[in-house]
Amino acid sequence: MALAKSLSISLFGLAGRLIEIEADISSNLPAFVLVGLPDASVNESAARVRAATTNSKLNLPGRRITVNLSPASVPKQGSGFDLAIAMAVLGASGLVNKSRLTKTVFLGELALDGSIKPIAGILAALIASRAFSIDQVVVPLANLAEAKLVSGLNILGFDHLSQVASAFGAEIAPQPLRDMVSNELQQEASNLCFSDVVGQPDAIEALTVAAVGGHNVLMYGPPGAGKTMLASRLPGILPPLTEEEAIELCAIRSVAKIDVDRLPATAPFQAPHHTASLVSMVGGGGSQPRPGLISLAHNGVLFLDEAPEFHSSVLESLRQPLESGMITISRAAGQAKFPARFQLVLAANPCPCGHAVGSGKVCVCSATARLRYQNRISGPLSDRLDLRMELSSVNAALVNSEIKSPTSSALRSVVTSAREVSTSRLSKTGWRTNSQVPGSYLRRELRLPKQVTAQLDSALDRNLISMRGYDRCLRVAWSISDLNGSTSPNKDDLALAVFLRGNEL
Ligand SMILES: [Zn+2]
User: 105 phi and psi, to 5 degrees?
Assistant: First the structure.
């Protein structure tokens, strides 16, 4: 019986399914038939496999070839199955050793000349292979550096079908392997430093606190106050990504078709323009959903400059990921889920003309226009902002001042040690940062002594702050206390938390 099997992975979002590819050669009239719910691009595989095998000096028998992709219920998209199909067919033809094919996942698209082209989503596919306990994977050579980021697998990289066939027992002379530039894991240094920032010591202090607690931030102030400059330096003071976080981010980048050949050391920073579409922000598009910018900012910073100018549907779409750290994209074929746990930094002018606060110029907006503009960042989104900073234009006195801003590397080490304190305090709770701790937990399990909260309590009694505002002050106070190396916030920490929240309690 001329039957052979190989394995591949079908991706939907970041979730992979193991696909078994069976090839059968029967004595009927010559034909090449694919069954098992393949989409158009998989169907074209037949033509590519035929041409690629011929051009690899491997001659398929002139008989009927049937290839079945199972389970049939799983949709199969894209050209990444070419290599697995070719190997199953070669196995059934007796041209390669078919017993070895059944324990190997093959990933790669074939060109007509037999060369193997890179595919998107290699990392997610490899993580899936490992989960299915298939530990040998053949990948396109161009994806090898990316593939090697996943440990615990035997990964082979090739750039021509003849090499793969030869490695699996075909008696042919394979094409020589291209030289690959060695891709050592590089440290990614963020060269943006806080020492470039002139003035704004309060803003830098507030961002340091935000970095410790993972707090979402709203900065408002006139154009030119340095909002973008400050926000873009935030990732540089966040603790370095752990290996697990870095691999997770690479898997997302790989599905988004962004070249991945090294593990990033620094948290990502995404700063979409306010004209960004909903799809580019949250992901989606076509039958095979791609992650959006909020997922590319996973474990890092999402910065929305001129936030009130963003489309309201885009601002609304941030609610789900801010709650759950995930975004779900629904398609006919099912739901794709992408991680999207980001620290949100919003920047806004105080009014449409930009001069209502802190610029020294005269605002020309009506009171209604000003209010409407501020209300664009509304309810649920606003609830998630722990820190609100008001920035002023930098004046000559500050530019000429002798006081230098601290460097990012100094701030990063301070933040990293403070983060360790909160991580160990929250280790049994499932929350990772102070910003994620719910108000009820803050007020019960992490209850502070009466004399510490006295002032805040009386403000609450007199309706000067809301319950939400109260909780936010507590969260920020914990980050300040972690920063100071104390066991719990004192009166001063709480007072600073109130100050850092600006005038808007
Ligand atoms: Zn104005």
Answer: -90, 130
